[in-house]
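Project standup — Tuesday

K.O.: blocked on the structure for the chain from last sprint. Re-posting the sequence here as requested.
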Amino acid sequence: MQTESAFGASRPSGAKCPSGLRKLSLAMLNTERVGEAFGGLPDKTLPGRVLAAFKAAAPALGYSGRVVHAVDWLFGFTQAQDWTEGSRPIVWPSAALQQQALGVGATQAKALNRHMVELGLVTMKDSPNGKRYGRRDPQGRIVEAYGFDLSPLAVRMAEFQAVAEKARVEREEMRRLRRRATIAMRGLAQVLETAAEIGLAGPEWGRLSQEAHALARVLKRIERADELALGVAGLERRHAEAKKRLADATVHPQEAYYETVDSDPKGPVNRPHQYNYKLNPDPYQDTVVALNECGAGGEARTSLQPSVPPEGFRKGPDRPARKDSGPVMRLTTDELVRLAPRLRPYLRSPSPTWPDIVEAADWLRHDLGVSKPLWGEACLAMGREQAAIALAIVSMKPEEHFTSTPGGYFNGMVTRARAGTLNLARTIWGLKDSKSSPRRSRGH
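H.V.: unblocked you, prediction finished:
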């Protein structure tokens, strides 16, 4: 049995008490009153639940790691029967053992013990001779003990549980708000990228970007849910404002064309847009160096600079009408998928038609960062099938090929198509030759 002086062990350095006993404070007296309310833990309540409730609430209550460690260590000296009615959970470890286990000096241990008492976590039960000691009967029940009384922790268990639950709810709310902030920032970045792609400029775009980034930096330092909610709402307002500006700036006079390109699908809600158009029996008229027919009724027609088609690619009077899976620019759908395998995951059929290719390209553009307005401009400038081929060409190129982004590269192709300087046919022929050259060399 170990004993320890209660007079010197808990009196802070420099404290003068004429009686030689521990100097009392109002906080210590209040903690004693709390401990007196202990009448045993409820049935089937394990002492470990008291410790778990305390440790869960400690961060929200501002308790330091040293305090939590000290209480956890003291719990190791208790037994289950100490927490039953008619008993008290008192432990009596020596000061030397406490200093060694917690890695503190004598003065620090005294200050820590007093701090735990003033926080309302433990009370000190002093012996008549000022020693810490205790003894148990053969059944392990405490007969006599003087030292640290852990009863206040048990009395405050419901309080600790309530504090911990409130902190958990607030953490969840903080996580939800930070997710909203991330979504708003990413959405705003997407709007700004789209605006840059289609050539929108002006001080309002710079202002939106600067305000949003400044607000995002401030939000990272906020730790209260109510303050964070205000900041997130401001970020979402700026995202909505940017979306409205983009929508207002991209109103196109050929609205009927966009209605055709971006019509709602008739199938499942997660399928891409459907395209209803009549196939041209002359495949050369569908190339980007011909006159492109984009509207269902010819209402939107863009004239590109024509060039002489390759030999054997002219329209003849007895030329049969092209099938849905027939060649476009001397390229079949199967050949395109082999050249651009990133289309394959979005195809609904292993033997796709050109409408299937266009539909898959509308999905693939998301991966490449091509906005919906830019995709619509491409279809208007090139025709839907040629726009899908151009997008497939972009998907074949490695990331280091682009000076900016794949979306910016595609925007340059659309610009050249409008000017009549884009020659997709030559690019396709080069790709086909590069794929077939190894086979030819192996055949010799």
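K.O.: great, moving the ticket to review. The longest strand covers residues 142-149. Confidence is low (pLDDT under 50) at residues 1-16, 252-323, 439-444.
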